[in-house]
Queue: 2 jobs
Job 1
Amino acid sequence: MPATNSLYDLPAAQIDYQAVRDFVLTAEQADLLTESITLELKQKRSGNNVAEAVAALSNTDGGLVLVGVSEEETGEARFKGISQRDFEGLMAHLRDLVPRALPEAIPIRIPNTDKLVALLRIDADAVLHPVLVRGTTLYRIPGHNVPADRQRVLDLVARDQTGFVGTQIPSGAISFPPPLAGSAPDFPLWPDEHTTLVTVRFKGEVLLPQRILERPWLGSVAKEAALDALNRSPIPDKVWGMAPPQQSSAWQITEARATSFKMRAPLQGTVESAGGVPVSASAFLSLAGRTLSILLGMRCHLKQNEVIPLGLEDLYWCVLAELVSISSACDAVSTAIGAAEPSELQAWEGWLQPQSDLRVPIVLNINDYPRDGTEQPIGGWFPPARPRGRSVADLDAMARDWITVLLLEMGLRDFEKWLSNIALPEWAQHMRFQ
């Protein structure tokens, strides 16, 4: 996971020249510019070249057009820039040629010059298809914009008519498992275990680009990517001050299908936290149409039939660890199957589930703060919300928001200062995902 989001989804207010420069030069070093299906560079507007790029990306998966950046040069020499007048002329030209597919346009000043780089961000799901330029329908193949044939045009029309942006399945495709829904807490991540104290589950979803429907399954490369991401994640080894990772706690696949697989750590039994609480983790990953879902859960177990309540700081660490792990696994899998960008974060949600004969105030230590009411809720819910972004900072903010909601719903007071002052865990401060 990068320290910040990519240009595909970074909020416009956070995009500056340094972000554009780093994005382009990183892509250049990785040899991702010449054959990209979602990125096009234009040194300047020439004829209809920019409008054609916008239309082609709109008719495919969306993406970025950077105007003022050379396709031919390398390194810093790429950044030629355009004038403010050229930028205004470009936007007028796009309004004329593709009025119903206008991209998000972000002008970025090149430092110490009067030149701009125009960042055009195209959302292919936000327009009616097909998008034409002077009567021609174009679409994107790696490195090129090409005219669409009759079947491609018919597919583009059908894309809107059938609502082909969620879990719609192309004709002839294999059957998908249903997307994880509100019943996710009952989804069998583990066999029944009578030693469970409390389970904390989160479901995260990412909407992948349209091209995933051409190969709508999860092969061995996706499974390896998910395992690698989770084995580098904070779960279960870095949560609650655990010892360095041991082979016994590594993630392993326990069940696999063409569009889903289940993983567990450790494969058998539990591992112990620094506080002596036995824990285990399990995850279910599913691809349903364009939706990549991960349901990830951590279980705290009874220790010799003794209830050791989860502290509020432990709960925060657990929530953050699960969010970071879900995000990194989604990123790794979507990259492995060639559908990482542009992708869109969907609403995530979570559940706090005590053992059936227990209640939240028993499994969660809330005695340090006053509480209005005496109710004993049987569980807690982190309601659906969309992460602000994919960085650790974004996910940390979401974890704190969710815990605030949970504690307020339980009637707790005066905890806000503690939560705002709690330090980011050391493992999160140093965490970097590829």
Job 2
Amino acid sequence: MTNALDRDDEHFSDYERKIVRCVREHGWFATSVSADEEGPDFTYSIGFEATVSQPEIIMFSIKHGHDFLGDIYSLMKNGRTLELGIRVPEILRNLDVVFLPVDKRFYAEYPLSARWFYGHENFALWQMVWPDHNGLFPWQDGFAPEFAESQPDLSFGNWGGLKAA
């Protein structure tokens, strides 16, 4: 499928040209959005699918999300294929993370620049979900309530079916 790398950049904004330049030079780009009254801050990748045939990644409430996306990209570039719903220890220094598919109904709200880059919504986007300080994920009993609003569930519901209904 085509993406912004295949299109004439004559009508691109400076920001769009920056995305394309970074994807060409580094294989990916990170977009970060600050927290507001509607929700927590988040960071997502652009270019993973185009350059390493892996899903784009979105994460919430993680300082230095760009750095973690860089680590994920390096893993992918070196042949690591991430799996859905499986604990992955190599991303956050002392905590496992789990990747869950993002429901396309959230594409209109979150990965706006990725939608522009691909020119459609037919790209894979996975949410990187992190646990609380006790290693419990949002779908597990006992997950720290102070983190409940820090990362919304963008899956198809009940944290990808992992939370008991």
